[in-house]
């Protein structure tokens, strides 16, 4: 009862914020609006809503950009599905044709030259890079509104060149995930007056602190149990709750297990826990060393989910496609892939790095803990964005596999106080704190199952 | 120069597992003399700050503090919400000069009174130069370290002072050297903890955030760079850990001396040490510790110590690579790892045997 | 290089009593002629030059000493300024890559600070200001990945060898050389520790420094014989200090070239880039980037330089490539199918088969063969019978003579730098011209509200979706 | 007798010896002062040297420091920090004073006060307005009104302005007679550089302009500061005379940790 009431109020709040976003972007005349979104909050849905309202209702010429081609293609599909009458133009690189389904869609006009873009009400979708490279061929104020999806994945240097193309801007993104990677002398970039390497919304707001910043209050992906673990660890400044009812996020099994620790972890998930750790005994490993036993364990968990006919209660039995594996290291992913094949699990189970997982979801996830086996913790392992992505892709649950000894490694860790450029945020400390908080919570809740 | 106060805390924070270093800090040893007592020889390397470094530091501080601290007021006022012309300054360097033995307690008394005034809502100065704080390192009345920020500036928004450091380190295009930042941040970490401890006495501890302000130099003479406010959670955490280490080592020393009044140099072999690469940069005893662990993995650095175990003999590693049968599962695993690593260097197992012949 | 490989290398070096090369090729192109070497002695903490030895490392150096380096009068640096400029003019005339050798990073910092202090100093002469910008240009060039113009001996050696001591000790050039050029009959570890007792960061030995500091007080006391003697002694000691530093630099340079590795085959583009960048900067006074468009360009330039350097390394050095292979960034594959409807024309599809476990490819990844003949974009990735198959659409090298044939087995790498700088410059120029207030002004504020807030846009949006 | 008692005896002995020496020095200084006065009366007048400190090589023995400082304070007319005084004495009178001399000077004055051999004027400290604590490197003269020796919250700025104004004036008017007139100008410039609107330029001494700026600011700021000082002086006037001169005594809050030791020590 109380969960239902909570869910209802979250949904209502979410609607209010969405309405407020529409008003702020389309009825007020702020030059830019930033919307922070927790994972699974329906960012793309929001983008779709704003774009369709602007283009269709207000007859605006709208530009929409995203960092990656895949994200752009996804946006086009979503716009076409939700608003089939909306004129969509896809501006793509000459060497990279759109996916065949998009090419085949008569409602999408694909162009590779900005000069061929038609003006007037409607939407142009493209990558930030393509739009930037088109800037010399476009006019200032070309768009009435420019929307940037997944904007926290974009460095300011890649967004700044296109901002003059519109009078109004909407930047939507998830502030807790991986920051954009920019190579070079970061200390020098940090010391500069303009932080061209920062995530675009961060720098935009630093330079223009009076711009409106709204926060989506609900996640439609993560169950509340996950929210209670993930939000305090990775989103200390963004409060949100689950908008989905407990009953809609239940994992069940068609077959009983054999009672080993893997089953114990799965049974915890079936009992309502959504984030569970499954740990092999501690063993020190190199940062980039592949842990065969953990790879084996990860594959075993996926196989066991399938063997036990894992089911999204009331929805469907899970297939290989419904399960994903995320690992920070390419080599380790490859080993898990090999182990999965050996266990009879096909390529439909996506195994890749958090960078690629951003923006995707699966009912069930298996993730290798980024600190597993590490005697010495580095910035890569401690990056809060990485673990945040790994623990926020699931709709039903995630099993963190790895080595025990994480708590000890965190305690032992000597914080570096030298390398961070002067006056900048301490991302490593934020990462350590997030890791510490999550691990302590899991341990306290009895969610760490040791093999 | 003694290993005490903030200097000692910073050193311990860099290597909290070395209890000998903590004992040296606790007993405020003068390092070169302690080295002589332990090794029987004079320390052969360079020790202590050079004349030009001392002179530059003093000149930089003086330039910021002269004329009613005009230099400091100018850079700090706007940052902390004060009109720089109406900032009240108390300079304890001018108020209470003298040797540390007498000066520290007097400055501490005055600093405490000002914090008391702040808690009571009375008028307080916006800028304190060379205030004095005390950081407890145990429960006893003498178990404390004196901590002296270069200055503290009142933050109008937070209603509490923020410790600050003046450093003559040169920023190039506003970029500081990591080593300089490391030291400064840890010093400030100790200052934050000490300020929190002092503020606790007057009920203001909650206002003390983990932040400090640094005023550093530009390449242009004594001109200060724009000040930087730093969030220092990690540095504070590391200094807290150093304080805990000091408390532990105090107890360990008491145990060791329960049957006799042995001076520290006689206890060196009984106190745990922890050699790490950083020791070579900071500790006068690094070469001594290294010599005691000659031909073990730790002499090849932290990476080798992590991989092989600090105490593993290098001759055993060589023997394993030359085909000696592994005695344990760990050794077997190590050989496998090193074999893979060899290929990255273009060396097959036979090549390794040859290289080690 | 991971810690295991490094540890193994150090174990081997320790056993053999000499440094172990960890590259199969040099990452630095052959020294051009002429070369300019700089070995400064600084005043501790002030980071001010008090002596400097410079010139052609194959000849005797010139030495400038400054008995009172804190004085505003910097006339004594004129000789250095002139020699530096002569060198710059000579390489510019010959359109050559300039090459500056410095002993260690501290020396570069001193050079950089010379740049900061004199480039815009209105009290300094034109030639000193020019020296200022040239020094900044040297420091600036050193920040680029793969650059070939500034050789910092300590760093370049460390990139090529592992010693048998802890890495932190390698930071001392003397201690590093004890392993790279070991003294016959002596344990390099002992020699290194002896060397480390004397600083190798461009400062005088402690006792000499203290002596010079003392003498300076006397030297400042006037023009009498005592002051003159003090100045003379300072100059002697500073000259000796600078010559010691010079010798250290020469020894390091000799030791480096004595490693006798072949030059990396991918260095050509790095040399060209480095030459272009450094000659441009050495010949004109440029303000450091501070506005959004110039900072964005700076970041892009560095990213491109890093791409080029990575590509040169992976393609040119076997050890680096092996490490890349372990990360899936290089893959050994066999060409199993070539589809090219019209010879030497696009489209051209090549299917690769690899059994390598670790791969970092997905749809859209750009791959290039190790010889750099062809380049393509991954169109599809699938698994079949224990192998991974990649279908590539070639974007470069579709001529018949270059298209690989079925059965070819070669390495493919994902380091394919694209020089988009010309287009980027146009983009940044447009950005600058448009000067969006969101980017160039600070603290823009919305201009209030317009339109009719009485319309519930969420309801509109929902109707629109329902309408679908 | 254990080692602690030994140490206590030694310290006490040294303290007693020190007291004796201080008394002796006080007597010597008094005699010297008398002789100086007689010499001054006997010597031909030196119109440029109003303050009595010679640059004349004729006098071989330097004037006592306390008198020099009193003179300096008289010249500058306001409380002055040791460092400022040191530089002023060097520039104006060519007198090099080691910074450590100021510390013994303070002790001498207190000793003289307590020795019941009163002086007509004492060197004394600035007093913090609220609690009367001494600012030990800030010097004043006992013949100044108490309010002129009080340091109120804004007095730091007033002190800077007063000194700047006076130094500019002296550099302007007494420049030729100063032992080092260039140094005097530099000293004035060093103070003036932090005045609003003043940009230091090498070799340019706008003494009159700087003086005007300082005076203008004093006109604006001093009344409020004086008010605060007078209020405080009223309260502080209730203190014993010694405390009005040398500050309210402050006891340590707790014993100090053992100072640095070489080896073999341990905390008691």
- Note the run of SSEs of chain D as H and E: HHEHHEEEHHHH
Work out the radius of gyration of chain A: 22 Å
Q: In terms of per-residue confidence, which ranges of chain D show pLDDT below 50 for 5 or more consecutive residues?
A: 44-59, 252-268
Q: How much β-strand is present in the residues of chain A?
A: 15-25%
Q: What is the overall pLDDT average of chain D? A: 80
Oligomer: heterotetramer
**Helical proportion of chain D?**
40-55%
Uncertain stretches of chain A: none
Strand content of chain D: 5-15%
* Average residue-wise pLDDT of chain A: 93
Distinct helical segment count of chain D: 8
Name of the CATH superfamily of the largest domain in chain A: P-loop containing nucleotide triphosphate hydrolases
Q: What is the 3D form of chain A?
A: globular
Assigned CATH architecture of the largest domain in chain A: 3-Layer(aba) Sandwich
Largest interface: A-C, 71 and 68 residues
The portion of residues assigned to helices of chain A is 25-40%
Name the structural class of chain A: alpha/beta
Strand order of the largest sheet of chain A: 4-3-5-2-6-7-1-8
What is the strand tally of chain A?
A: 19
Query: Under the CATH scheme, which class of the largest domain in chain A?
Result: Alpha Beta
**What is the rounded distance between the termini of chain D?**
18 Å
What does this structure look like?
- The complex is a heterotetramer of chains A (451), B (357), C (468) and D (268).
- Chain A is α/β, with parallel strands linked by helices and 451 residues long.
- Chain A has two domains: 2-219, Rossmann fold, CATH 3.40.50.300; 224-450, Rossmann fold.
- Helix content of chain A is 39%, strand content 19%.
- Chain A has an eight-stranded parallel β-sheet with strand order 4-3-5-2-6-7-1-8, sandwiched between helices. A six-stranded parallel β-sheet of chain A has the order 16-15-17-18-12-19. Chain A has a three-stranded antiparallel β-sheet with strand order 11-13-14.
- Chain A starts with a helix and ends with a strand.
- Chain C has two domains: 3-282, no CATH class; 295-439, Thrombin, subunit H (Beta Barrel).
- In chain C, the strands form three sheets. Chain C has a six-stranded antiparallel beta barrel. In chain C, strands 4-3-2-5-6 form a five-stranded mixed β-sheet, sandwiched between helices. A two-stranded antiparallel sheet of chain C has the order 1-7.
- In chain C, helix 7 runs antiparallel to helix 8.
- Chain C is globular.
- In chain D, helix 5 packs antiparallel against helix 6 (181-192).
- Chain D has a domain at 62-239.
- Chain D has helices at residues 3-42, 65-76, 82-93, 99-114, 155-173, 181-192, 207-236, 241-246, and strands spanning 80-81, 123-128, 134-141, 150-151.
């Amino acid at each position: 009862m109380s969960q239902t009431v909570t869910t209802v109020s979250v949904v209502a709040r979410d609607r209010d914020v969405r309405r407020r976003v529409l008003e702020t972007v389309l009825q007020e005349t702020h030059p830019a609006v930033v919307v922070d979104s927790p994972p699974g909050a329906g960012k793309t849905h929001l983008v779709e809503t704003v774009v369709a309202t602007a283009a269709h209702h207000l007859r605006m010429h709208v530009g929409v950009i995203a960092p990656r081609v895949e994200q752009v293609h996804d946006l086009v599909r979503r716009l076409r599905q939700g608003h089939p009458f909306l004129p969509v133009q896809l501006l793509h690189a000459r060497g990279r044709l759109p996916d065949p389904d998009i090419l085949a869609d008569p409602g999408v006009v694909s162009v590779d030259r900005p000069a061929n873009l038609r003006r007037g009400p409607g939407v142009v979708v493209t990558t930030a890079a393509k739009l930037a490279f088109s800037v010399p061929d476009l006019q200032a104020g070309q768009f009435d509104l420019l929307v940037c999806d997944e904007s926290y994945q974009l460095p300011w240097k890649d967004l700044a060149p296109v901002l003059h193309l519109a009078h109004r801007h909407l930047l939507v993104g998830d502030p807790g995930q991986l920051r954009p990677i920019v190579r070079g002398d970061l200390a020098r970039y940090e010391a500069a007056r303009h932080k061209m390497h920062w995530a675009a919304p961060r720098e935009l707001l630093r330079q223009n602190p009076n711009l409106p910043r709204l926060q989506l209050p609900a996640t439609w992906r993560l169950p509340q149990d996950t929210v209670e673990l993930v939000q305090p660890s990775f989103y200390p400044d963004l409060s949100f709750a689950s908008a989905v009812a407990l009953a809609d996020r239940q994992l069940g099994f068609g077959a009983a297990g054999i009672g080993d620790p893997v089953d114990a972890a799965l049974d915890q998930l079936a009992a309502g826990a959504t984030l569970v750790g499954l740990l092999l005994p501690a063993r020190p490993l190199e940062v980039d060393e592949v842990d065969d036993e953990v790879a084996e364990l990860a594959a075993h968990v996926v196989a066991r989910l399938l063997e036990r006919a894992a089911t999204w209660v009331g929805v469907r039995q899970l297939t290989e496609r419904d399960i994903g594996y995320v690992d920070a290291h390419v080599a380790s992913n490859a080993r898990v892939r090999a182990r999965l094949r050996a266990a009879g699990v096909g390529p439909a189970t996506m195994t890749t790095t958090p960078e690629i997982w951003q923006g995707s979801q699966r009912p069930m996830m298996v993730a290798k803990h980024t600190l597993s086996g590490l005697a010495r913790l580095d910035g890569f392992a401690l990056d809060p964005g990485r673990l945040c992505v790994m623990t926020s892709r699931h709709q039903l649950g995630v099993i963190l596999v790895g080595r025990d000894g994480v708590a000890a490694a965190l305690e032992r860790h000597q914080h570096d106080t030298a390398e961070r450029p002067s006056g900048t945020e301490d991302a490593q400390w934020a990462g350590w704190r997030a890791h510490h908080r999550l691990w302590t919570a899991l341990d306290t809740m009895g969610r760490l199952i040791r093999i | 120069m003694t290993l005490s106060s903030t200097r000692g805390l910073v050193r311990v924070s860099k290597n909290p597992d070395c209890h000998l270093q903590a004992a040296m800090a606790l007993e405020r040893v003068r390092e070169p003399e302690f080295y002589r007592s332990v090794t029987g020889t004079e320390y052969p390397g360079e020790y202590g700050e050079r004349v030009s470094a001392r002179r530059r530091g003093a000149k930089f501080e003086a330039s910021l503090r002269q004329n009613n601290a005009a230099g400091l007021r100018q850079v700090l006022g706007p940052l902390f919400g004060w009109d720089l012309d109406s900032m009240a300054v108390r300079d304890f360097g001018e108020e209470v000069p003298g040797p540390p033995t007498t000066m520290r307690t007097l400055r501490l008394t005055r600093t405490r009174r000002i914090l008391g005034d702040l808690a009571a809502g009375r008028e307080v100065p916006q800028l304190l130069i060379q205030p004095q704080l005390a950081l407890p390192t145990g429960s006893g009345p003498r178990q404390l370290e004196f901590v002296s920020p270069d200055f503290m500036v009142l933050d109008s928004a937070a209603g509490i002072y923020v410790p600050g450091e003046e450093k003559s380190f040169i920023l190039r295009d506003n970029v500081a050297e990591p080593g300089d930042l490391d030291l400064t941040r840890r010093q400030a970490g100790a200052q934050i903890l000490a300020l929190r401890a002092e503020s606790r006495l007057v009920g203001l501890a909650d206002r003390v955030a983990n932040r400090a302000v640094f005023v550093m130099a530009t390449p242009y003479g004594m001109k200060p760079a724009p000040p930087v406010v730093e969030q220092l959670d990690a540095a504070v955490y590391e200094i807290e850990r150093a304080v805990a280490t000091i408390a532990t080592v105090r107890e360990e020393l008491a145990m060791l001396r329960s049957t006799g009044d042995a001076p520290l140099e006689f206890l060196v072999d009984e106190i745990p040490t922890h050699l790490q690469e950083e020791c070579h940069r900071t500790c006068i005893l690094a070469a001594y510790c290294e010599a005691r662990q000659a031909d073990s993995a730790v002499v090849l650095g932290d990476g080798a110590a992590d991989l092989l175990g600090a105490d593993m003999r290098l001759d055993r590693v060589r023997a394993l690579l030359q085909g000696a049968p592994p005695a344990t599962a760990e050794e077997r695993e190590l050989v496998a790892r090193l074999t893979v690593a060899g290929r990255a260097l273009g060396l097959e197992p036979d090549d390794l045997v040859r290289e080690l012949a | 290089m991971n810690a295991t490989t490094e540890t193994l290398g150090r174990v081997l070096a320790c056993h053999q009593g000499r440094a172990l090369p960890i590259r199969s090729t040099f990452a630095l192109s052959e020294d051009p002629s002429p070369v300019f070497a700089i070995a400064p002695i600084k005043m501790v903490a002030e980071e001010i030059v008090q002596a400097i030895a410079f010139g052609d490392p194959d000849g005797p150096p010139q030495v400038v000493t400054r008995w009172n380096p804190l004085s505003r009068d910097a006339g004594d640096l004129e000789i250095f300024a002139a020699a530096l400029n002569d060198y710059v003019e000579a390489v510019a005339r010959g359109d050559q890559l300039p090459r500056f050798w410095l002993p260690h990073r501290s020396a570069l910092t001193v050079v950089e600070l010379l740049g900061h202090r004199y480039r815009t100093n209105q009290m300094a002469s034109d030639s000193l200001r020019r020296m200022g910008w040239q020094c900044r240009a040297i420091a600036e060039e050193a920040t680029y990945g793969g650059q070939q113009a500034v050789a910092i001996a300590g760093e370049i050696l460390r990139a090529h060898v592992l010693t048998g001591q802890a890495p932190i000790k390698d930071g001392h050039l003397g201690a590093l050389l004890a392993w790279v050029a070991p003294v016959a009959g002596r344990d390099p570890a002992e020699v290194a520790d002896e060397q480390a007792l004397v600083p190798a960061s461009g400062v005088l030995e402690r006792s000499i420094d203290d002596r010079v500091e003392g003498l300076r007080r006397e030297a400042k006391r006037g023009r009498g014989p005592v002051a003159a003697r003090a100045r003379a002694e300072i100059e002697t000691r500073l000259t000796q200090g600078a010559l010691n530093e010079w010798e250290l630099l020469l020894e390091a340079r000799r030791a480096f070239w004595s490693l006798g590795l072949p030059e990396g085959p991918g260095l050509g583009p790095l040399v060209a880039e480095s030459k272009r960048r450094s000659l441009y900067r050495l010949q004109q006074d440029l303000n450091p980037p501070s506005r959004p468009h110039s900072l964005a360009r700076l970041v892009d330039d560095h990213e491109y330089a890093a791409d080029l350097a990575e590509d040169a390394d992976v393609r040119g050095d076997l050890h680096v490539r092996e490490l890349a292979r372990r990360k899936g960034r290089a893959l050994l594959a066999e060409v199993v199918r070539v589809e090219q409807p019209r010879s030497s024309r696009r489209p051209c599809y090549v299917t690769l088969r690899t059994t390598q476990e670790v791969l970092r490819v997905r749809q859209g990844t750009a791959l290039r063969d190790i010889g750099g003949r062809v380049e393509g974009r991954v169109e599809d990735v699938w698994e079949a019978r224990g192998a991974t198959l990649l279908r590539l659409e070639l974007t470069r090298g579709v001529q018949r003579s270059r298209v690989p044939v079925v059965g070819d087995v070669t390495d493919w790498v994902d380091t394919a730098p694209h020089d988009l700088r010309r287009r980027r410059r146009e983009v940044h120029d447009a950005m600058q011209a448009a000067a969006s207030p969101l980017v160039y002004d600070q603290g823009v504020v919305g201009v209030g509200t317009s339109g009719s807030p009485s319309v519930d846009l969420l309801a509109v949006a929902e109707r629109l979706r329902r309408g679908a | 007798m254990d080692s602690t008692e030994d140490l206590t005896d030694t310290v006490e002995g040294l303290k007693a010896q020190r007291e004796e020496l201080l008394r002796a020095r006080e007597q010597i200084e008094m005699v010297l002062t008398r002789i100086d006065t007689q010499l001054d009366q006997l010597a031909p007048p030196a119109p440029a040297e109003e303050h009595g400190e010679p640059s004349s090589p004729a006098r071989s023995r330097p004037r006592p420091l306390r008198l020099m400082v009193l003179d300096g304070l008289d010249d500058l007319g306001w409380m002055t920090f040791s460092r400022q005084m040191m530089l002023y004495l060097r520039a104006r009178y060519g007198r090099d004073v080691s910074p450590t001399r100021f510390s013994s000077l303070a002790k001498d004055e207190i000793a003289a006060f307590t020795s019941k051999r009163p002086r007509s004027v004492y060197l004394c400290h600035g007093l913090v307005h609220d609690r009367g604590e001494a600012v030990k490197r800030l010097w004043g003269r006992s013949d100044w009104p108490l309010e002129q020796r009080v340091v109120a919250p804004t007095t730091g700025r007033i002190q800077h302005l007063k000194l700047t104004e006076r130094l500019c004036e002296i550099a302007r008017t007494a420049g030729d007679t100063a032992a080092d007139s260039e140094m005097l100008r530099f000293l004035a410039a060093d103070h003036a550089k932090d005045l609003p609107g003043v940009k230091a330029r090498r070799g340019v001494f706008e003494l009159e302009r700087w003086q005007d700026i300082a005076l203008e600011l004093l006109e604006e700021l001093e009344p409020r500061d004086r008010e605060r000082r007078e209020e405080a002086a009223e309260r502080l006037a209730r203190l014993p005379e010694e405390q009005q001169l040398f500050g309210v005594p402050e006891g340590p809050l707790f014993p100090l940790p053992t100072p640095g030791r070489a080896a073999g020590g341990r905390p008691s």
